[in-house]
Amino acid sequence: MASAETAAEHERILREIESTDTNCIGPTLRSVYDGQEHGLFMDKLEGRIRNHDREIEKMCNHHFQGFVDSITELLKVRGEAQKLKCQVTETNQKLQNDGKELLTSMDELRQCRLQQRNIATTIDKLTHCLPVLEMYSKLQEQMRAKRYYPALRTLEHLEESCLPQAGSYRFCTIMAENIPRLRTHIRDVSMSDLKDFLESIRKHSDKIGETAMKQAQVQIARDNAVTSQQRSASGRRIRKEMCLGTKVDRNGSNPFSEKDSGILDVEDEEENEIPGAQDLVDFSPVYRCLHIYTVLGARDTFENYYRKQRRKQARLVLQPHSNMHETLEGYRHYFNQIVGFFVVEDHILHTTQGLVNRAYVEELWELALSKTIAALRTHSSYCTDPDLILDLKNLIVLFADTLQGYGFPVNQLFDMLLEMRDQYGEILLKKWNQSFRQILDQDNYSPIPVASPEEYQRIACQFPFQDPELDKIPFPKKLPFSEFVPKVYSQLKEFIYACLKYSEDLHLSSTEIDDMIRKSTNLLLTRTLSHCLQYAIKKKNVGLAELVQIIINTTHLEQSCHYLEEFISNITNVPPDTINATKLYGTSTFKDARHAAEEEIYTNLNQKIDQFLQLADYDWTAAQGGAQASDYLSDLIAFLCSTFAVFTHLPGKVAQTACMSACKHLSTSLLQLLLEADVRQVSMGALQQFNVDVKECERFARAGPVPGFQGDTLLLAFIDLRQLLDLFTQWDWSTYLADYGRPTCKYLRVNPHTALALLEKISRSMKDTSRKNNMFAQFRKNERDKQKLIDTVVKQLRNLIATNQA
Which part of the chain is the Exocyst complex component EXOC6/Sec15 N-terminal domain (predicted)? Predict the structure, then answer.
């Protein structure tokens, strides 16, 4: 059974091998090798191969005889074909020999008849061709003479009249073919002239623009001269009719009222005096080229080419140099080229019929305006020199006025100048910041000595100062302020002049100019000058004398602010009481600086006091106090006396505040010195010495180092210390504990925490002393009683503190 199944399986595998693609035979063979009957399968495979070989051999034997018969027939056909080829070749050779003579005779006859016909035709047609040849010869002469317009007319006559009558001949065809080439040549030559013209105006744009801007400048100067004469002639009438002054100025004497007439009017009136664009550039090539292209019917092509090339030139002209911002000449060259470009276009617009139109010129101007403004914004932002910005502004105004004279709108340029005004203001602020810093750094912060009336008058011209009391003092004398006051005031006026220079020729009203100057001056006062004053006040190593002088200086500068208001009103002709007029913030600026200096004085005084207190060297365990104040405190009092003597020129309130602040800080610092944690013990002797020092402080306060205090007001700074020391030196604890919390308490300013802390230090000192003298304890009954009293008071103070906290 197993052998039958194996045989059947082998048969199936063989059929699969016979019917399957050899690429997929792998799995089939693997199944054979995986089985156990590999040898049996190989025998069966050999038998199958032998069967197939026998079938192949049988089939070959069956078809071999037919193949041999076919080869035999092919050999017979080849011989017959060779015979047929030889016969055809022989027949052809005979035919060629027989027809050669006939062909020669026929060719001779055809050639003779052709010559006869050609001669007759030539004789007949020459009479019709001579006019064409003569006209063409005339055309060649005109072309050689570069008379292109007559040549175009000759071409037109030749093409429309002569050539159609002559007929279709080769030379006529050649002429007809040459006519478009001749027209193209004429067009190309005229185009070459146009290119030369375009190159010429490109080279001369700078010169044309320079001439036009000079022309505009002359016209503006003349307008201003006429306006000045009108103003001087009508000055009295204007003063009599002040209510109509603004209308007269606006309608009759505005220096810009006649600028809109433009440079073209000047050219029309005075073209013999001032050269125009036509005097610098020969425009005949463009006129000639336009005429030729019109005759050729290609006017539109010419117009498109001209406009396209001029647009390209416009883009080149409008592209500024990368270093244009470095010098004014770079800007001038840039503006000259733009003005020259549009002067040429304006001339072409008015001297040709339709080569350029108003819409095209306006489109170019819009492009130029946007690119010019963008370039100016970019390059002017690199500028840090206010003089260069001012010169650039004047150049832009001249540029705008020149083009406005040709009818181009320039409002955007003036708007951009108003934007540049802010940049100009920032550059001025930076420059004046350096000036103010230099003035403050170089000042000696000492009153100005004046030896003669001439010196006094010189300073009075720089700074508006009036002091009747000082005028009564004979020379030499000293002004209360230092050098930086007249210098700062002069710099403020210079800044105002610089702002005024920029606002000129911007077509602004007096009110707008006044408002611009006031806003810029406010920025200078509130930002630049204020920062410089703060810098001078806060810098290191500034002394009290310098701070005092700064307060005096800022006081005088504050008083001069209304003079600045009048100065601005005078140069702008705008009354200071005008509605909506911007007010100067100088008063608040100088007040802030003065307050900062005052605070710095208070801080410096406190720091000096702290430095003296660091020299304090109390013996907190001393058995007996001294009769004189400590050395450090004597030095401190001497320092304060000399310092407050300098405050005589300060406002009374400032000096009083500084004195009170110093005394309060001294009192607080002495109390902290007494209560600091490092001091564990305080003897009654040390407390007596401390009391002597406090009395010295009170003596200083009572002496009135600064005038203006009422009664013993200054002594109140030491009231806390005084009540605390009286409580301990008088040992009046019963009164303190009994009256605590009452408004009429004798020791109202003594805090129980402070009293407890100091009492504990005294207690520790007494205990330590008792331990050292323990052998004499039987003789120290009074000290033991006092110690018990101290312990009792300590308990009562703690109970008092706990009660208050609850």
Answer: 44-213
